[in-house]
Design brief:
The complex is a heterodimer of chains A (about 230) and B (about 300). Chain A has helices spanning about 25-50, 55-60, 65-90, 95-105, 105-110, 125-150, 160-190, 195-200, 205-210, 210-220, 220-225, and strands at about 20, 200-205. By secondary structure, chain A is mainly alpha-helical. Chain A folds into two domains: about 25-90, no CATH class; about 95-220, Up-down Bundle (Fumarate Reductase Cytochrome B subunit). In chain A, helix 3 (about 65-90) packs across helix 6 (about 125-150), helix 6 (about 125-150) packs antiparallel against helix 7 and helix 9 crosses helix 10. The two termini of chain A are about 25 Å apart. Chain B is of the alpha+beta class and about 300 residues long. Chain B has two domains: about 5-245, Alpha-Beta Plaits (2-Layer Sandwich); about 255-295, no CATH class. In chain B, the strands form four sheets. A four-stranded mixed β-sheet of chain B has the order 9-2-11-10. The longest helix of chain B has 24 residues, at about 255-280. Chain B is elongated. The chains are: A mainly alpha (about 230), B alpha+beta (about 300). At the A-B interface, helix 1, helix 3, helix 7 and helix 9 of A face helix 3, helix 7, helix 8 and helix 9 of B.
Chain lengths: ~230, ~300
């Protein structure tokens, strides 16, 4: 949405090797706020999860320090996801293109991209990840408050203490699953993705290959000039 | 009893076995509380504060003898007063000294993620080691008796230690020492169990208290504090003593099967993306523009 009509630098006059702005600075900042706060929560959370991973807490200052910061970083993560929801909710709605794309997802997994229908700014998989993290963080925040202030839950309603544990664990594991796939795809699998979320730009060829509908929309104004 | 009993049998949040696991060096220690001879004098509460070095905290008045509703992080021993209507309509006070039960199968220890923050000695005492506590409060969720309490200033959990410092020097716990009626006893679990059963039998046969019995719940593997109750079929009447306490099943599942399921799932995820990369490799953009340019030059 916010990057439409945003061709940043046409480096060659004939359009070869052109770059196109995919993520604004603000989007990148919030992505990395979310990323660092999530990674902190994941490291410390895994330390609390298993004695065999408690050493992870040592990496970030020891058990009591990890326990002190974990909930606050969780709040920071929730806020950054909330901001993403504010700006991306429109982009993340499922479209007809997504429905066509989701039926052909097997080709995406097998790197047979020439057999994929064109996608918008985000493909269906990215949208699934967004909504997983969005609903995940809501569950993590609510159940996390229950764990944070466990003594405030009266003994007569202790089932809420247990529910908080169960929900926090289930939601955390689900988001870790999404996180593993997200990081893998953003770094190793989809080349160019990682630099796009750091410097904001992708090549026009990349945009055409992965998000053709978005590329066409974003370049509508400029292509007319050429 | 001596310091040799302080070999550690179980350690919370610990990767691997505990050094005292499977060691039976000495007696399991046990407190016996005979609620039928308790007069509610609160001498045990005072002795507990005196020995452990805490001051009295603010009390509340709720038209009963109950000076505060629950134990707190620095008030580990509290008599629960309960008005109870007998079958004939007369009123009696049921009084129960509430404190950590020192479960043989402690839910706090099972729930605790911090290495060595909760230990169980071979003499059965469950003890919090505040220097290892991270203040997460998981023990609050694990305890079936609502005993561990959080000190907001130090961010550590506290509870009755069963006067482990006295017991390890061959002394009885402070509360036991202070009891004027002799309703509190201390000794080996076997001796206390025997004494309790004898007393319950006496109550049933000589005093006609038919439901008198011993509270030593099997759901937590038995406890290091046992009660003689007038009515063992209704322990809830004694200030919410649970009838069949056990580690909450969510906590057992969380610390048991869920760990395996979760760890295998995470490992599976890492393995999955690795295999995907080995099989399919990166998704490279077939850059037509650049290729055309190169083609033109060659």
């Amino acid at each position: 949405m916010s990057t439409s009509n945003a061709i940043s630098s046409e480096r060659a006059g004939d359009g070869t090797g052109g770059r196109i702005l995919r993520y604004t600075l603000s989007e990148r900042v919030h992505h990395w706020l979310a990323a660092f706060s999530y990674i902190y929560c994941m490291i410390t959370g895994l330390a609390f999860w298993s004695p065999y991973m408690f050493w992870l807490a040592v990496l970030v200052g020891g058990g009591p320090t990890a326990r002190f910061w974990h909930p606050w970083f969780g709040v920071a993560f929730a806020l950054s996801v909330g901001w993403m929801y504010k700006i991306w909710r429109g982009d993340m709605a499922t479209t007809d293109a997504d429905r066509r794309w989701s039926h052909a997802m097997e080709h995406y997994i097998k790197n047979e991209d020439d057999q994929l229908p064109p996608e918008g700014r985000f493909n269906y998989g990215q949208k699934l990840f967004f909504w997983l993290m969005f609903y995940g963080v809501i569950l993590l925040l609510i159940s996390g408050l229950g764990l944070w202030f466990v003594e405030s839950i009266p003994w007569s309603m202790r089932w809420l203490r247990y529910l908080a544990v169960a929900v926090h664990v289930a939601a955390a594991l689900a988001t870790i699953g999404g996180f593993i796939i997200h990081v893998y795809m953003g770094t190793a699998m989809v080349r160019g993705g990682f630099t796009s979320i750091i410097r904001g730009e992708v090549s026009t060829a990349w945009a055409k290959a992965h998000h053709r509908l978005w590329y066409e929309q974003a370049t509508k104004g400029t292509s007319a000039k050429e | 009893m001596s310091q040799s009993t302080l070999a550690v049998k179980r350690i919370s949040g610990h990767a691997g076995a505990a050094p005292g696991d499977d060691v039976e060096r000495d007696y399991q220690v046990c407190k016996l509380v005979d609620t039928t001879t308790c007069i509610g004098c609160k001498a045990c509460e005072v002795a507990c504060l005196e020995w452990n070095g805490y001051s009295f905290t603010d009390t509340v008045f709720d038209n009963s003898y109950q000076t505060m509703p629950e134990t707190t992080w620095n008030y580990w021993n509290l008599i629960k007063f309960n008005e109870h209507e007998r079958d004939d309509g007369s009123i009696t006070l049921l009084m129960r000294k509430d404190q950590c039960m020192h479960c043989a199968d402690p839910g706090c220890l099972a729930a605790c993620p911090a290495d060595g923050a909760i230990v169980q000695y071979t003499n059965g005492i469950v003890d919090f080691q505040q220097q290892n506590c991270i203040g997460c409060g998981y023990c609050v969720s694990g305890c079936p008796f609502d005993i561990p309490k959080f000190n907001p200033k130090t961010k550590k959990m506290f509870k009755c230690t069963l006067c482990v410092d006295r017991v390890s020097e061959g002394l009885e716990p402070a509360c036991i020492k202070s009891c004027p009626t002799g309703c509190l006893h201390f000794g080996s679990k076997d001796d206390m169990k025997d004494l309790a059963e004898t007393r319950a039998k006496q109550l049933r046969e000589n005093y006609g208290i038919e439901k008198a019995g011993v509270y030593d719940p099997v759901g937590v593997g038995g406890t290091g504090v046992i009660y003689v109750l007038h009515d063992v079929t209704n322990p809830e009447a004694y200030g919410g003593l649970p009838k069949d306490p056990h580690i909450p099943w969510v906590v057992s599942f969380w610390k048991g099967p869920a760990k395996w399921i979760g760890n295998l799932a995470m490992l599976g995820g890492l393995l999955g993306v690795t295999l995907h990369y080995l099989r399919y490799g990166p998704k490279l953009v077939h850059n037509e523009d650049v290729k055309d340019q190169n083609g033109g030059q060659s």
